[in-house]
């Protein structure tokens, strides 16, 4: 590499971008990871989960190929257990809840040690064909243009992002959002959405009325390597006990279910989900509104999962919703043990632009655009496991 020329430029700061940049650099390619905010690399703050049936296999495969996700997860475990224990070996899998701060810190520390990898913070303003030697040129706000043989678009949910909470619709112009019109000429785009659950104050929940799901009492790990604790100087005081040994007692999760009263509140409330939403969502993460409308008498299982070691907050997993704040508080109050619960952050629906289905080829290369690739949520992926695997590919 000479000047601002790289073999590979990865645009984005999520888990998929980190795995893609790491994989390219490990192959000896001079690689640039270009993120809008390096302080938020591998941020899993809205979905700090990993594993489960099928998805757990993806984590193991990424680990076998030398990826980062499995080992970073092992350094950030809040709760891990083996699911489907009573079934055959092919059905068993690890499922984990992670501390987002510890996971991101582990990823950043790993990337800092990788040769042939440069990290740069910057806002991408354009990506164009280059008439010079390199096929692509990436324009960055306030910085010289960067030429690359290959560009990986791992933009996550940033492109034309809209946050929907009831009738409120907030447009968040992420660092890459200005690229939408330019991308439309290069890549066929489609509209996607993903819903997130509300965050609840742990102290206001009566967990005695819920079924406890205990974490493993014996060490479990996604990676084949020995669990490597993070150095004490990199951790907040709350993590000291975790640093001193390779295993820490796991925090429990709790299982509850919706009631007929819950369904009545959800069915009567206004939501963009039931008002002509046309964007495509991931399988297995249907908004609660769709479930209730489809089967009014259904009892939806919900899981209370810790958000971190120290925050005192839990996610209401399974309650993926775009209801308004007042309506969310109403349906939460109908759940067993949550009658007096305090909501710290409402659930929300995030709409964004991503690559249309069929546009990426089998190698994730954008059709008719040699040297241009897509990965992660931007390529239609769902969840941290798919993000990591698509980035690795």
UniProtKB/TrEMBL annotation:
Gene Ontology cellular-component annotations: cytosol
Annotated ranges, domain MnmG N-terminal: 7-393
Subunit record text: Homodimer. Heterotetramer of two MnmE and two MnmG subunits.
Keywords: FAD, Flavoprotein, NAD, tRNA processing
GO biological process, one term: tRNA methylation
Cofactor: FAD
Single GO MF descriptor: flavin adenine dinucleotide binding
Native species: Kouleothrix aurantiaca
Protein name: MnmG N-terminal domain-containing protein
């Amino acid at each position: 590499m000479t000047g601002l020329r790289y073999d590979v430029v990865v645009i984005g700061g999520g888990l998929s971008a980190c795995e893609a940049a790491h994989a390219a650099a490990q192959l000896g390619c001079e690689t640039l990871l270009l993120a809008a905010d390096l302080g938020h690399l591998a941020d899993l703050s809205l979905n700090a989960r990993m594993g489960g049936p099928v998805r757990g296999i993806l984590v193991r495969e990424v680990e076998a190929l030398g990826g980062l996700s499995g080992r970073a997860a092992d350094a950030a475990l809040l709760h891990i257990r083996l699911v489907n224990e009573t079934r055959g070996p092919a059905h068993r899998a690890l499922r984990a809840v992670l501390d987002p701060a510890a996971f991101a810190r582990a990823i950043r520390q790993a990337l800092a040690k990788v040769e042939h990898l440069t990290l740069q913070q910057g806002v991408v303003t354009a990506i164009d064909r280059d008439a010079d030697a390199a096929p692509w040129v990436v324009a960055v706000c306030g910085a010289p243009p960067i030429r690359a043989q290959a560009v990986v678009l791992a933009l996550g949910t940033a492109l034309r992002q809209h946050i929907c909470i009831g009738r409120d619709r907030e447009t968040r112009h992420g660092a890459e959002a200005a690229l939408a019109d330019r991308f439309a000429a290069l890549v066929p785009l489609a509209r996607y959405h993903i819903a997130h659950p509300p965050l609840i104050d742990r102290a206001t929940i009566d967990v005695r009325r819920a079924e406890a799901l205990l974490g493993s009492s014996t060490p479990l790990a996604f990676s084949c390597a020995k669990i490597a604790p993070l150095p004490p100087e990199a951790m907040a005081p709350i993590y000291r006990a975790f640093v001193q040994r390779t295993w820490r007692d796991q925090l429990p999760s709790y299982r509850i279910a919706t009631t007929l009263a819950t369904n009545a509140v959800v069915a009567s409330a206004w939501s963009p989900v039931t008002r002509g939403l046309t964007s495509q969502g991931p399988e297995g993460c249907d908004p609660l509104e769709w479930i209730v409308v489809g089967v009014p008498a259904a009892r939806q299982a919900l899981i209370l999962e810790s958000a971190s070691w120290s925050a005192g907050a839990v996610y209401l997993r399974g309650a993926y919703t775009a209801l308004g704040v007042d309506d969310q508080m109403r349906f939460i109050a109908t759940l067993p043990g949550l009658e007096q619960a305090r909501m710290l952050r409402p659930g929300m629906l995030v709409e964004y632009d991503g690559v249309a289905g069929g546009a990426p080829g089998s190698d994730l290369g954008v059709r008719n655009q040699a040297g241009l690739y897509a990965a992660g949520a931007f390529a239609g992926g769902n969840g941290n496991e798919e993000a990591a695997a698509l980035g690795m590919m």
